[in-house]
Design goal:
The structure is a homotetramer. Chain A is α+β, with helices and mostly antiparallel strands. Chain A contains twelve helices and ten strands. In chain A, the strands form three sheets. The first copy, chain A, has a five-stranded antiparallel beta sheet with strand order 3-2-9-8-7. A three-stranded antiparallel beta sheet of chain A has the order 4-6-5. The first copy, chain A, is globular and about 55 Å long. At the A-B interface, helix 10 and helix 11 of A face helix 10 and helix 11 of B.
């Protein structure tokens, strides 16, 4: 398997050149655009890795499925559904998703957990006495899913996100003004920015993906959350996980996945394996170019498509 | 199995009351709102049926995956992709999907094969000397997929669609004006309306779904189209098949499916079975109420979700 | 005065170079991009002209205020208002103006008489047994306003408009599907296309503008329509007459006006004069570049702004 | 004249019942919905008043033309135009005016000085070392235009605006994220909220309107600003001053005007008079119901329409 991975890495690395490392904050800009790493964990507990699989990077939007899990675990499906819809928006992840241009209405059923609006709302659904406590619970869940107690926040990235996050501030104040967001906007946002700044590597993502692929059970057999929450998260990843490139990914790769502007992709192959990828050069939609290319090739080779 | 079906039919039939039979043309309005039929065909060639599984109805939007198949078979993936995108629109199936409100641009990458705009374009991608010939090839493919040479057009419905289809005319002329549609608009539309007026029953849909679930091979083992086209169609069904309710369906049922305003649903359980449903009372998004309810229950009972 | 006109013509003619003659139909493309003509008729019955004031051109959108007049004369203000709103759309003149992207609603209060949707509706408001008769009444009104019985249709332009008018067909079928348009779409459109193809010159426009500037009374003192209809039309011209450049025109020229893609501008200086301009090179919004420039200079020199 | 005013007040007061006093902050909610006051100042220096003309209220959006004047006086027309467009948006005053739903672009040419986005930008265009200084210059201009040194801020309203202004925060952060807004968002907003909270009465508005109607000259003959800025402001008021009801107001009243949710309307009759109205019950678009009614009647009686 590792031979196959090396071969695919060599073949896919050049595709990074058509992409660009995220540059809205200095900390992300420093990433090596040619980096490409992969880690796979299968249901037999076997793992394989290749390339830059040990380079740390910030989780960014890949925290969204974990936020969704935490929200589900803390509130149940029905309540979460009533606050954040599950339909694709047909728009970019940071879009201002106004349901009605004239009435300037925003409806919870027109946002989903994989766009920024939905993720910001989910921060308010985490249980906790204050936002420090809420964030810590999310961090703990992330560590537990990845079986890695060392996972922590990249404070430099967090500070940058906080300084530059005006579009997210706009989204949050807008939802606040429409009654879709409770609590202090800046506190909610600091939780969200902190969540995006969690530092992981390919192995972490592969392990988290594995639990999702395995109906909530980690590779040591611990049931970390109910199987139906795995269904919920995977279904949402399938339809909305790859930003406004979800349809293309479904056709060409065919598994639930989530990408982040930090360059990571977490791919869930239900019943078979969890995959973590790192390749920071992004296409226009914010997805990792070489990472998607790699997953396409891997999916063909291993017949991963669930369709 | 048929015991289970009967039990679920009894449980789900009352949900039809919250829906309404499509009434934009008289021929559809005549449908019995309480009807509920199901037909299942599994990979072992076994079938089961229940309720009103033999009532004929018009295929309506369920022709869209077949149109997509025909377009793929006639043009290959790359060409089809260049003419009709694969991303969710976040809008209703008959939406005017303008990419840019100011410049009034419509881009092929913002339409998909499961919305009317995309389906109308796909009619122009069928090979044939004229639209009679093109339509006949589509009808032949439908008959072949369903292994039913008797499938034909409901001429009354066709005449009504033709008479009332002004929104679709608007969509077609709009695409024409943007250079997205070739040929004579009224001819293209007559092909599209005729395609929507094809009459099927639950068994037909189950058999078509079966071929899609079985990588292009029918239950007698004939390879009707390449496996990768089944992947393509199923992926598109998953992300866009249930109109702007696709996300909800992915979460609660978890299989590729397509509904039509005639009351049909075709559900594809990859590697396992094809399902045809009939229940004509629709929700606001145009999906069969009792049909979706039935599929939810069935998915839970048989663990059909691919996630 | 004619000295001033000549001087301004010389100064403004070069601005045409930044524009482009309409080229969506061959007949318009033949226009001389450097042409610039003007005709002024003031309340004392005096007139002045300069440049290419005798070149004939098609009236195009400048028929819209006449259509509005005819609709008002045939139906009164209240009824016309209930069918076509009076607010700016903030969009191009041929925009698909959907009030609600999700529900795909189009409301009459979100269209106005100066955008194509509104103008098409107004064709249905002209009284007449059939569309030949309706169009003839509109043509008669145009001749009467211009005091020129020779005004007629440019049949070549009409044939081209008919052949290429798919965007307008889309608009009409869309309104039809929303219940905003009565009658046979192709008949309504043929009336609309024919109306746009009426051939006029600067003197015709100046005379029509004069009647509007003079509370409905022509320069011989005949009251052609009630003063309040002049108010109505002029107000709509002010807020919506220059396409999505109406605000700029209000600031820099400051009088009600209407432009057409044929290169004409009709400007109404209430209580003072009517102006007809011809300069076929257009800016991106479809307004005559040199024509607007000319009107800016003239407005400064003669203090025409009503503000 | 005062007899006419009294008569019109009696006739128009009942129309207030179809409206509602603004209730998004408690301070506004206390207003008497039946109040109706008017103050007129004509070019001969004569004035007339009637009804509740001495009730103080907050200026709210009527500060926008004064903000525009200040911006013009501090930066000239060209610079102001480059930062804030002059076209109608076709949307409500507090709309999020995204030019392109997919690219989430906001262009300065698609906002105008009469919508909140434009007004917030104009706060950044006032000259001054800090926002205290900038605001003081705006307040001074307001006092000078109204010839009333006692005009000041309603601190209760200001505090409420600050506490509830999340939609405006969203607009400001959005523009900030698009590079349309310089400076600290909260400081800019505090200037804007403070500006909206300036307390005036009908006489103040009439006097301000008078200067605008009189080419920048007050009733004592002082030239407070260049005549061309009066043209600019009046033209913008005409096309965008009455929110998304500007077209209707142009047709039925026919003069430049600005309304505010505090219940005020300032109407400018170029070359003739300035009018201040107070009637706090608002229609759905945020315009004073009885105030508009009153102006319609007055316009008919005195033939005020500039068309």
């Amino acid at each position: 398997m590792e031979g196959l991975l090396t071969q695919l890495i060599d073949r896919c690395r050049p595709f990074a050149r058509s992409g660009k490392v995220a540059n809205y904050i200095p900390a992300l800009e420093k990433a090596d655009p040619d980096a490409l790493g992969i880690y796979i964990l299968d249901r037999n507990g076997l793992h394989a890795q290749g390339g830059d699989s040990q380079v740390p990077f910030t989780i960014q939007s890949i925290i969204k499925p974990i936020l969704l899990l935490q929200a589900l675990m803390d509130n149940g499906e029905e309540f979460v559904r009533s606050r954040v819809g599950v339909e694709s928006t047909g728009k970019p992840f940071d879009a201002i998703n106004i349901s009605n241009a004239v009435d300037q209405e925003i409806l919870s059923e027109h946002i989903n957990p994989m766009v920024n609006m939905g993720a910001i709302v989910m921060c308010t659904l985490i249980r906790g006495g204050n936002y420090q406590e809420r964030f810590n619970r999310l961090l703990e869940l992330t560590r537990k899913l990845a079986n890695n107690p060392d996972i922590d926040v990249d404070e430099e990235v967090y500070a940058s996100e906080l300084a530059t996050g005006n579009k997210n501030r706009a989204l949050a104040f807008l939802m606040k003004s429409c009654g879709l967001l409770e609590g202090d906007v800046e506190e909610v946002l600091s939780c969200y920015f902190r969540a995006c700044s969690i530092r992981v590597d390919c192995r972490d993502l592969a392990r988290i993906a594995f639990v999702l692929s395995n109906k909530g059970r980690d590779f040591m057999g611990n049931q970390l959350f109910p199987a139906r929450y795995a269904h919920y998260v995977n279904a949402v990843l399938m339809t909305c996980g790859m930003y406004d490139g979800a349809g293309d990914f479904a056709v060409t790769v065919g598994v639930p996945a989530k990408s982040g502007v930090g360059g990571g992709i977490m791919a869930v192959v239900p019943g078979r394996m969890g995959i973590g990828i790192y390749a920071p050069a992004l296409d226009k939609k914010g997805n990792s170019v070489a990472g998607i290319r790699f997953l396409r090739e891997l999916s063909k080779q291993l017949e991963l498509s669930i369709f």
